[in-house]
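Subject: Sanity check before I submit

Could someone independently write out the structure tokens for this chain? I want to compare against mine line by line before I put it in a report. The sequence has 124 residues.
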Amino acid sequence: QVQLVESGGGSVQAGASLTLSCTASGRTFSGYVMGWFRQVPGKEREFVAAITWSVGRTYYADSVKARVTISRDNAKNTVHLQMNSLKPEDTAVYYCAAQSTPVISTIPNRFDYWGQGTQVTVSS
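---
Independent answer below. Compare away.
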């Protein structure tokens, strides 16, 4: 059974940094794409960043590109999302997701597995 467990969320001041982590288990993820999305109440889930598990190719949403880095630790089956210079508009629940095909997608319903989400709150 595939499980994605996020951690690292919290409440911070604007300008701070946070690193979210997603630990994956239940299968081998080589050939998968791991992604991060975020969602605020009343809005659609928004793509943030993704990485291919095998070669580490990355892709970012334009809105966060300059402030976010996604990385993976193959040995620990963990994906990280480092977020710098956080803004109040970054406040959301952040979700880790796994896509079973190696071509990065930004569309939520292309991802097969989801974590439970972790709250990030940025105050001004």
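---
OP: Matches mine. For the report I'm noting this point. DSSP finds no helices and eleven strands in the chain.
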